[in-house]
UniProtKB/TrEMBL annotation:
UniProt membrane topology term: Multi-pass membrane protein
Keywords, in A-Z order: ATP-binding, Membrane, Nucleotide-binding, Transmembrane, Transmembrane helix
Residue ranges of the TM segments: 21-48, 54-72, 140-158, 164-182, 241-268, 274-293
The ABC transporter domain, residue ranges: 336-570
Name of the protein described by the UniProt record: Thiol reductant ABC exporter subunit CydC
Pfam families in the record: ABC_membrane (PF00664), ABC_tran (PF00005)
InterPro entries xrefs: AAA+_ATPase, ABC1_TM_dom, ABC1_TM_sf, ABC_CydC/D, ABC_transporter-like_ATP-bd, ABC_transporter-like_CS, P-loop_NTPase, Type_1_exporter
Length: 583
């Protein structure tokens, strides 16, 4: 249902919980605008009446009204800004929480490039505030105030009121509609250009070392300059459109004012309108266009806001990769049992996992071996609840994990992904990411278990800054830190996806030794393509093409002709140690 509505309607609907605040803001805005018009009207009456030299007492009410309207205008405008911005910022905070929550499910992260995603998270989300503050409150306040002003003008002179109504409709409705239509495509291009610039900048910043090494930095900077130039061109067109809208409104205001003056002069000549009401009528017409002055500019920006809304809801509407399925009976068994597991990434795609069966009793350590594309990482994604099985079941202690919330499963299944992220913070904060309430002794204990404590002591303790992406740590230290973080959760099942990838043989073997020592007594699945230290596992499972082609104890498989890799596609080009090659 929500996807059938336009993005602007959906963005406005996000403010529904604070509708009363926006209604108060509209009322305050209408009051401020009406007070501004009234101030000019009363001033006109006061000046015109004073020219006739009446008694001073006849002017006292107008003098008091002028002061009151001046104070009212300032207070009402302040109240409007306070209420509408407060409501808009609170709504924006809610939208950001929704976006963060959606990104935490990982599906949008895989779909969009990093720079583009940052733009959607920041600029496109901020467009919600722009729409609510500039695109919602001013038109409603103008409608309320404009009706009152036209009523006053019509009471003074019917033709003048009609002409003023026509001018306000043209300046406050026709011009904004034209501006909105003309700004739709430039707005879309502006959002796209901003995203392109952000993506290019992020690519240059994150890929700077590789770009410099391969001599590609000039080309990358040229792409940044080109994206910046395109954004500048689009914003210039946008500024020109705003100028045309403002000019059209000013032209209509001037023509309406002259028309009202001519009608008023004619009415004075015919005796149907006095001199003082003429001054009031003309200045009322002059002040009335203050009501609709912001509307063309706001309408011209609706194209950009709409494009931002489309991009924002692209993130929020990304379908989840996992869902909580109806509960099933709990079986009286312990450990992990995978039966007939099948997963693919699209209806026309081949099966990434095709009928995988796997039993992992409590306390057992299983190595899942296979070449790239065998389905090993897909298996890890299923266990981490990043992806649902298309067929088959995954039972953890007799409970189907698809019937539980992803975070509930992840509280019991922890691990180290293939490329663990180390945050630009301290060692302590990187560890407490797993357990925020962990004490310092607990942190030192887990660091001892992964043989990282001495290095952390030497570097300055738990408050040591690890640098962006852990650049102040070696590859082995980053892997050990990620392993310590996983162990800190004390999971029922530990899943390690290629924890020694990209490490040299010496570091790889050291990390594996530490890993095996630290996980004694834990139920563990190691996903790897390396053959090192496999003799220390309870069982080895070999996968090819999404299927288990052989399994058994290390001594059983190593005794077979060809060892662990018999029947596998030949692998070459591996560096850093044995990897699916002859032992």
């Amino acid at each position: 249902m929500t996807r059938t509505r336009g993005p602007l309607t959906r963005m406005i609907a996000l403010a529904r919980p604070r509708g009363s605040r926006f209604a108060l803001g509209v009322l305050a805005g209408a009051t401020a605008t009406a007070a501004g018009v009234g101030l000019l009207v009363v001033a006109a009456w006061l000046i015109a009446t004073a020219a006739t030299h009446p008694p001073i007492t006849a002017l006292s009410v107008a003098v008091v009204a002028t002061r009151a309207l001046g104070v009212t205008r300032g207070l009402a405008r302040y109240l409007e800004r306070l209420v509408t911005h407060d409501a808009a910022l609170r709504t924006l905070a809610d939208v950001r929480v929704r976006v963060y929550a959606r990104l935490a499910r990982t599906e949008p992260i895989h779909r969009f490039r990093t720079g583009d995603l940052v733009t959607r998270l920041v600029s496109d989300t901020d467009a919600t505030q722009d729409l609510l503050v500039r695109g919602l409150t001013p038109p409603l306040a103008a409608l309320v105030t404009g009706a009152g002003v036209v009523t006053v003008a019509t009471a003074l002179l019917v033709p003048g009121g009609v002409l003023l109504a026509a001018g306000l409709v043209l300046a406050g409705l026709a011009v904004p509609l034209v501006a909105a239509a003309a700004g739709r495509e430039p707005g879309r291009r502006r959002a796209a250009a901003r995203a392109a610039l952000s993506t290019a900048v992020v690519d240059v910043v994150h890929g700077a070392p590789d770009l410099v090494v391969y001599g590609a930095m000039p080309a990358a900077l040229a792409r940044v300059e080109e994206a910046g130039a395109e954004l500048t061109r689009v914003e210039r067109r946008d500024a020109g459109l705003l100028g045309l809208g403002a000019g059209a409104s000013a032209l209509i205001a001037g023509l309406t004012l002259w028309g009202t003056l001519l009608l008023g002069v004619g009415a004075v000549g015919s005796g149907t309108l006095g001199a003082v009401p003429l001054a009031v009528l003309v200045l009322t017409a002059l002040a009335a266009f203050e009501i609709v002055a912001p509307l063309p500019g706001a309408a011209a920006r609706l194209g950009a806001v709409r494009a931002a809304g489309v991009r924002l809801f692209d993130v929020l509407d990304t379908p989840p990769a996992v869902e909580v399925r109806p509960a099933r009976p709990v079986l009286p068994e312990r450990g992990l049992r995978i039966s007939g597991l099948r997963v693919r990434y699209g209806p026309a795609e081949p099966w990434a996992l095709d009928g995988v069966d796997l039993d992992v009793p409590p306390g057992r350590r299983i190595a899942v071996l296979g070449p790239s594309g065998a389905g090993k990482s897909t298996l890890a994604d299923v266990l981490f609840r990043f992806r649902d099985p298309d067929e088959g079941t995954v039972l953890l202690d007799g409970v189907d994990i698809t019937t539980q919330e992803p975070d509930t499963v992840r509280a019991r299944v922890s691990g180290v992904p293939q490329d663990p992220h180390v945050f630009a913070s301290t060692v302590r904060e990187n560890l407490r990411l797993a357990r925020p309430d962990a004490s310092d002794p607990e942190l030192w204990d887990v660091l001892e278990r992964v043989r990282l404590a001495s290095d952390v002591h030497a570097a300055g303790g738990l408050d040591t800054e690890v640098g962006t992406h852990g650049t102040r740590l070696s590859g082995g230290m980053r892997q050990r830190l990620a392993l310590a973080r996983a162990l800190l959760v004390e999971p029922d099942l530990l899943v390690l996806d290629e924890p020694t990838a990209h490490l040299d043989p010496e570091t790889r073997d050291a990390v594996l030794d530490d890993l095996l020592a630290a996980t004694t007594g834990h139920t563990m699945i190691l996903i790897t393509h390396d053959l090192s230290r496999l003799d220390r596992f309870d069982q080895i499972v070999v996968m090819v093409g999404g299927r288990v082609v052989r399994r058994g104890a290390p001594e059983q498989l190593s005794a077979l002709p060809g060892g662990y890799h018999a029947g596998l596609p030949s692998q070459s080009g591996h560096s850093g140690g044995p990897a699916l090659c002859s032992r």
